[in-house]
Amino acid sequence: MIEAVGALAVLSMVLSVFALLLSIGAVLRAQRAQASPMESYKSIPDGSEVPGDVLAKLLEGDSPYEWLEGPTLLSFVSDSCPACLELVVALNQMTLKGLRLLIVAPDGATDLRVSATFLALWATDSDRQARTRFEIKATPHTFLLHQGRIQAQHVGSAIEGIVSKGMATVPATPTG
Q1: From CA 121, how far away is CA 103, in angstroms rounded?
Q2: 33 neighbors 132 (Cβ within 8 angstroms)
Q3: Around Cβ 151, how many Cβ atoms within 10 Å?
Q4: CATH code for the domain in which residue 161 is found
Q5: 29 vs 86, which has greater pLDDT?
Q6: Is residue 60 part of a domain?
């Protein structure tokens, strides 16, 4: 009888430890879910110099100087990406006065272009050189370029924050 009670006590202790480990795992999973999952997809660090040669290629020989000086939003998208369509819808609803917008897609993003009502330069990155140099891991991925550097970036379709940062760098138009 004493042996049975001892065995039950050990079993109860093992089950308690197992339950504790399960609850710790659940807490850790919940904390990871609350952290922005897209943060892990960020690539080239903010503050880095913009790869001007790649930008020049995307602009098909035009001088990238104005695009590098910014403020410019550079978005990498793909037709096969549902969040990219959400990005286009969001851009359709925003006022981007003073911001240049360059949209880059490996496939030309024909379906996305049809949905766009905003003014942007669309570039095709068929050899994926731009995606490689900007270290794109997921789309949509938007960069704020200003003064030759990456000022901010965001992965996903909710780009209000990065647009606000970009609008803050637009020089005020003189009144008079």
Answers
A1: 6
A2: no
A3: 20
A4: 3.40.30.10
A5: 86
A6: yes
